[in-house]
Amino acid sequence: MEKNSYGGYRDLKTYQLAYQLALEIHEITKSFPKEEKYSLMDQMRRASRSVPANLAEAWKKRRYQKMFVSKILDASGEASETEVWLDFSRDFKYIKDNKHKELMEKYDELNRMLNGMIDKADKFCK
């Protein structure tokens, strides 16, 4: 990969996966009980949406490698938080085991991608 060969953050496969996961989380949480609206549902949606948002911020701050890495770490933290909310959702029986497993596998992939961006930050930064 050439240095800065991307047109923007929307071109990043990491961003695309994170964005799709946030959309999927939004859809899944629509079926949660009303009493979870201001707790689990909002927490899951917020954390999952923060991943692509932090990637966008990281992209805009890539002039400074430390800031880029910091925002990618923030994205990774939000992805991990989303995994915890997914665990609660499974254990509360709001999502089925197979859906939980599928989403956890996608978040594992996303975290590998985020770690790769950290390890190769110089390839993304100006």
**What is the highest CATH level, the class?**
Mainly Alpha
Low-pLDDT ranges = none
Structural class: mainly alpha
Return the string of H and E elements. HHHHH
CATH-scheme architecture: Up-down Bundle
Structure explained in plain terms:
This protein has 5 helices and no strands. It has 126 residues and is an all-alpha fold. It has a single domain, classed as 23S rRNA-intervening sequence (de novo design (two linked rop proteins), Up-down Bundle). It is elongated, with a radius of gyration of 15 Å.
Short description:
The chain is an all-alpha fold. Helices cover 75% and strands 0% of the residues. It contains five helices and no strands.
Attribute tags:
mainly alpha; 126 residues; de novo design (two linked rop proteins); 0% strand; elongated
Task: Describe the secondary-structure layout.
Layout: H1 13-29, H2 37-60, H3 65-91, H4 97-119, H5 121-124
